[in-house]
Specification:
about 180 residues; mainly alpha; 2 domains; two-stranded antiparallel sheet; two-stranded antiparallel ribbon; about 10% strand
């Protein structure tokens, strides 16, 4: 059987579990959060590289093979490692931050970003045209319209309204 190709994230997760926690999956790279974490775990599970006891994830025998490591011989079921207080504290803090971000309904934009600049333009009583936003940001018109639909409406939950005065350009505002 040939070794399966692992993504860099999958390889890092398996390697850490084998080196530091006797096969228990307790660590993820900083850039693997939320839905990405679930996708990585699903990918490993679908390829039978990891297994679960209902609560925790462990490297399966095939995962040891994929990493070129000998399978554990003393106990077919991986033994849960002792909890590392530092890792537990870091995980708890990260999960609290993620939970707060999910429940926080405020738009999250940096004050000096182009996105914040566009939001400020749309909040003005007179609103803004696509051309004005293009001039201010350097974006093309399709990027401005895409930002309205994607970042503003879908991700930030803002309501964008528009009207077109007779003989003029369409004006957009945040309702």
């Amino acid at each position: 059987m040939t070794n399966p190709q692992l993504t860099p994230a999958q390889h890092a997760i398996l390697a850490y579990a084998l080196e530091h926690s006797d096969g228990k999956i307790v660590w993820f790279p900083d850039n693997i959060k939320g839905g990405a974490r679930k996708k990585v775990l699903d990918g490993l599970l679908n390829r039978a590289l990891i297994t679960t006891d209902g609560t925790d994830w462990f490297v399966a025998a095939e995962g040891y093979d994929a990493m070129g490591r000998p399978r554990p011989t003393s106990n077919p079921e991986p033994m849960p490692a002792e909890a590392d207080p530092e890792i537990e504290a870091a995980v708890t803090a990260a999960e609290a931050t993620w939970a707060k971000e999910r429940t926080d309904n405020k738009p999250r934009t940096r004050e000096n970003s182009k996105q914040a600049q566009v939001i400020a333009m749309l909040r003005r009583p007179e609103g803004s045209t696509v051309r004005q936003i293009c001039d201010a940001t350097g974006w093309q018109a399709h990027t401005v319209r895409g930002t309205f639909a994607g970042a503003f409406k879908k991700k930030l939950g803002l309501t964008i309204v528009s009207d077109k005065p007779q003989g003029g350009e369409r004006i957009y505002r945040i309702a």
